[in-house]
Structure of NmrA family transcriptional regulator:
Amino acid sequence: MIVITGATGQLGSRIVDQVLQRMAATELGVSVTDVTKAADLEARGVRVRRGDFTDPATLTHAFEGADQVLVISAAIRGAGAVDANLAAIDAAVAAGARRILYTSHQGAAKDSLFPPMITHARTEQHLAATGVPWLALRNGFYSSTLTYYLDQALTSGILAVPADAPVSWTGHDDLATAAATLLTTSSAFSGPTPPLTASSTLDFAAVAAIASEITGREIRHVVTDDEEWVASAVERGLPRIAAEFTLGMFRAARRGEFAATDPTLEKLTGHSSETVRTMLERTL
């Protein structure tokens, strides 16, 4: 049996859908914090059990009988994210899983300027020490993140962000297909995968230009000072801790942490990766 955590989230739900195209529902289990949100999966024959990374006792039941477990990284900020991920990995080991997969990130590094990358690096280190065959999916930065910044720009006509650098923005659907492929077929990969990214990179100036073409109105890219951007975000209602957290992404991008591209994702999916333009045409 394959068990997938976070199966009702943006990435997890897509992975589940892809896996169900490749294997019988009775061979799949999901671990979710709210089982009512997975009622449709249960109706299809998927085993649905409650599993909460912050309540490790629940994971014993959720992971029971698992041959493989896909741990989708906890959506928790701060030190708690590491503890939650490690609890899930330890539970998978205790359940007797013969292989553990984890949704990491292309920028995973202990010295990253963006805190989630440090979480991924520490989680990968723990995985490697378990002695169980493992795979860290080094996913590219989600392209859907861009819509957060463009929402206000569509109203004001100005995309005001800190200085950035090219990022290999990557689509959820492509990453889900790759994960499903790696879960359901034999793979030569072991440990961290190559970067699972789109084939090209874009900075925010290019994103603004694309959004302008799609919407038919000018969206002007403006570079703001880091602290001025944080102050502006706080004025708009964003908690300071969240604004400073987000600033870390820009700082890391400027250091080139998200600039790598690699053909592995397209080899796994069997098609060209979704472009930012395609994503924005669908969502704007």
Summary: DSSP finds twelve helices and nine strands in the chain.
